[in-house]
Amino acid sequence: MIDTAAPSTPPPQGPIPESELDPRLKALLDYWRGKCSPGHLPARADIDPLELRALLGNINLIEVVPQADGTRRFRYRLFGTEFVFYHGGDLTGQWVDEIGNAVYRQQLVGLYEHVVATGATPMLSYDYILDSRRHRFQAVILPLASNGREIDMILSSGLPVGVY
Prior knowledge:
This is PAS domain-containing protein. By secondary structure, the chain is α+β, with helices and mostly antiparallel strands.
């Protein structure tokens, strides 16, 4: 639920510790960890949408697509309905590197590249302006690997946690 009684000055954006993560995102992180096996990441096939029913509208699946020149591109395989609302359109099937806003595009590509290169599970907060109000979101970014090792999909979830 959005906290409309939040202070007028929002806390800083950026990485957040797990202890400050919204309980719904903490539950997703715990779910993902439960799907991991020693030394192996879960695959997309390990993730059951019915088990994530409460978060479905807030989930994105990003496909990692290797290119012939050794680089990667990222494509939204699923763009959750809540993201459609906040972004004003459905990005399912769209390439991340073709997003119109250059700053946003560079941030996303950099974040996804970091996840693929390191297997990190970033937890972060960010702001989105809607109707002249700042909406604070928290997000987790979780790597998935069909073979347990090479990341070929990213599951992300972002939730509004405050309005300032």
